[in-house]
Amino acid sequence: MQKRQHAQESIELSLISLEKADCKRSVQGLQKVQSMYPEDPPGDEALFYLALVTMYCEDHHENAITYLEQLINEYPQSPLLLVAKDEKDRIKGTKSLKEENDNLKEQIDKIKTELYQTKAKYKEILDVIEKAKHPFTSIEQQAKAK
Fold first, then answer.
1. Cα end-to-end span (Å), the chain
2. What torsion do the CA atoms of 73, 79, 83, 86 make, to the nearest 10 degrees?
3. Residues 112-125: tens digit of each pLDDT
4. 21 phi and psi, to 5 degrees?
5. Which pLDDT band, with edges at 50, 70 and 90, does 137 fall under?
6. Out of 2.70.98.40, 2.60.120.10, 1.25.40.10, 3.90.470.20, which CATH number does the structure's domain 2-96 have?
7. 31, 46 in Cβ contact below 8 A?
8. What is the spatial distance between Cα 51 and Cα 31, in angstroms, rounded to a whole number?
């Protein structure tokens, strides 16, 4: 019982570390609890918080999904099971949206580059057209310069 109480206190300290933006300490504390209880509570709770910390604090979608899958597979009787499944689906959806957003940003950057190049070519064409409108002006200017 004392060991379980210590584990619960470690979870609470990990969450306090998280509030102080000390993600590394939070992750370390939660991993310690999970290793102490690899098949029993509060190991499931530690995995759930590990998933949230790695998702929101470190932006590691794959690690978060891995922790949630571990919780789902290793703690089938956990009261966190349904929440873990929902969170896993949500993170996968967020990951897909993030990847789509990144792809769109790349496409926008390519379009901007092409637009810049097209503007430069357009300016060159306008310069050629302007010179063609006044072919003798440039010859006269060259003659005067000599």
1. 101
2. 40
3. 888 888 888 888 88
4. 65, 30
5. low
6. 1.25.40.10
7. yes
8. 11
**Cα(130)–Cα(115) distance, rounded to whole angstroms?**
22
- CA dist 126 to 84, 119, 123, 135, Å? 62, 10, 5, 14
Q: Model confidence over 73-89: pLDDT tens digits?
A: 999 999 999 999 999 99
Q: What is the pTM of this model?
A: 0.63
Given a contact cutoff of 8 angstroms between Cβ atoms, the answer to whether 117 and 81 are in contact is no
For the chain, which residues make up each domain, given as ranges? 2-96, 102-145
Q: How far apart are CA 123 and CA 71, in angstroms?
A: 61
